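Researcher: Here's a chain I'd like modeled. Treat it as a single chain, no partners, no ligands.
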Amino acid sequence: MNAKAKGGKNERRTMRLLESSGYAVTRAAASLGVFDVVGISATDFVLVQVKSNRWPDAAEMESIKGFRAPANCRKLAHRWRDRVRLPDVREV
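Model: Modeled as a single isolated chain. Structure tokens:
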């Protein structure tokens, strides 16, 4: 599986995880923006950067931290490791 296919698969896994928690979810990866997945609920929303087997590098983390968002928004990084059922989650 190439890197692009693996990334797309992990983004869809993140989407299913958020949907099961009650979020309406959309994938924003094709926009080449800071975040790959956006989840919206009645009380808050999450912006998620999805990675496979590694955390975002220093430049990506700075982009995530510098992204202006309302107080009810959580900015997350999901790291999906090979052969692991759930991601490691880091709030940024």
